[in-house]
Amino acid sequence: MSGQIISGKAISETIKSELQAQVAKLVEQGIKPGLAVIIVGENPASQVYVRNKARTCIQLGMHSEIHELPESTSEEALLQLIADLNQNQSIHGILVQLPLPKHIHEQHVLDAIDPGKDVDGFHPVQVGNMVIGNRSYLPCTPNGVIELLKRSNIEIAGKHAVVVGRSNIVGKPVAMLLLRENATVTICHSRTADLAAITKQADILVVAIGRAEAITAEHIKPGAVVIDVGINRTEDGRLVGDVDFASAQAVSSHITPVPGGVGPMTITMLMFNTLDAARTLNGIV
Ligand code: GUN
User: Fold this and answer.
1) Which of 3, 191, 243, 271 has the fewest CB atoms within 10 Å, measured from its CB?
2) Computed from CA positions of residues 82, 88, 93, 97, in that sequence, does the dihedral angle turn out positive or negative?
3) Is the Cβ atom of 140 under 6 angstroms away from ligand 1?
4) 141 lines ligand 1 (CB under 6 A)
């Protein structure tokens, strides 16, 4: 078996063209969706992500602004900027790029964003609404994973989905979204006793552990769908996922590559949320 590649790049291009048309319609009604992205410090990976987010906003006809703050910024100053953006009528989505410098308390900052503008879906109100199945902005990477599966016609209901990783950004929310789609969900993590014994039971395996090529064919049931959320730079400069692609592809039915898999979906779902926020904040349902 050689797993079919799920191209997040191609799927995200399709979604972006759908969004572009919807943005144009909203602009005709006098509403231009606006996203403010805040970056504190000079983490090079974060700088690339933030630039890509801004570029995609512009491509889709949205308003974009980047607030670049020095590493030494105080938590108080950051909270003040968020308070200003919460009040700013031309901004519908606010995203604070993570990680933040160590002297800033991440949860204080996420809690300060108006939940109605929380297009990352990280505010406790959004998280709570997601868990109980209320309308909410869904976190971008987890929602991107679900969208990849749906648009690849992969049945989720009734399947055993195993998630490796339990972060607040990916592992926990993706498990919750898979549950919402009626999968039977197992979450594995660094303290899981026999990881391969559990991942081998997965019909759908979602990997988000942040360790280069840690999941290999030995962890995968033949015919499983493998979604690799990882992105790691190896010592020899290659960009790889958390899954050893070559060995995993040989046993899977479908697999996402790195780069070009889950990555492009994250930004696309952020654009989706920003458009949704612009509509919702203007009373358009
Ligand atoms: N850092 C890595 N991923 C993300 C994300 O999805 N949102 C934010 N705000 N920061 C991140």
Assistant:
1) 191
2) negative
3) yes
4) yes
DSSP, residue by residue, 225-278 = EEEE---EE-TTS-EE-SB-HHHHHHH-SEE--SSSSHHHHHHHHHHHHHHHHH
143 lines ligand 1 (CB under 6 A): no
Which single residue is written with the structure tokens 């990916």?
A: 170
Q: Is the CB of 120 under 6 A from ligand 1?
A: yes
The model scores a pTM over 0.90: yes
Task: Please list the alpha-helical segments (H only) found in 97-182.
Answer: 106-112, 124-132, 140-151, 171-180
**CA–centroid distance, residue 146 to ligand 1 (Å):** 17
For residue 264, whether the previous peptide bond is cis, meaning omega lies within 30 degrees of 0, is no
CA–centroid distance, residue 97 to ligand 1 (Å): 5
Tens digit of pLDDT for each residue in 20-69?
999 999 999 999 999 999 999 999 999 999 999 999 999 999 999 999 99
Q: By C-alpha distance, which of 275, 130, 262, 247 is closest to 207?
A: 262
